[in-house]
Amino acid sequence: MNNEKSNVAQLHEAIGPRRPHQQGRNPQIVKRRIRRAIMLIAVFAVGLVFLGIQLFTTNAQIRSMNHSIDREQTTLQKRQREHRKLQKRDQRLQNQDYVKALAHSKYDYGKKGETNYHFVKK
Questions:
Q1: Which residues lie in Basic residues bias regions (predicted)?
Q2: Per-residue pLDDT tens digits for 65-116
Q3: Got the DSSP string for 13-75?
Q4: What is the mean pLDDT of residues 32-39?
């Protein structure tokens, strides 16, 4: 073989001998990498804080809505009970005998010729 060196080998020799990779050999590059790392960490930290705040406010809104739903369900149940009572009362008021007894006992109403007596307990 020929001992002549290729063009690439000649260029390498002209630049200088090969050095093993040294970490931190250029301080400007190291500073740039540190700044980039700090910026990435800061961006992720701000993102996490934002997501945490969103999670907290959403959770508070959900709790508030659940409390409101519970209050409204209680009110609805109370109104449904009142409605059933009124329906029963309406059905009783359709009965003429009940209306007569109610008028007689509550309002002291009587037919012509009837005498109402009130007894006082001692």
A1: 78-87
A2: 999 999 999 999 999 999 999 999 999 989 888 888 888 777 777 777 777 7
A3: HHH-------TT-SHHHHHHHHHHHHHHHHHHHHHHHHHHHHHHHHHHHHHHHHHHHHHHHHH
A4: 95
Cα 69 from Cα 112, distance rounded (Å):
56
For the chain, how far is it from start to end, CA to CA, in angstroms?
A: 142
Q: What is the DSSP letter of 99?
A: H
Nearest 10 degrees: Cα torsion 50, 53, 58, 59: 140
Tokens of 112: 């012509």
**Which pair of structure tokens corresponds to residue 97?**
């005998």
Question: Residue 78: in which H helix or E strand, if any?
Answer: helix 27-93
Tokens of 40: 């990435």
The whole-model pTM stands at 0.50
Residue 78 backbone class (left: φ over 0; alpha: ψ -120 to 50; beta: rest):
alpha
Asked if residue 33 lies in contact with residue 26, where contact means CB atoms within 8 angstroms, the answer is: no
Residues 41/33, Cβ–Cβ less than 8 Å: no
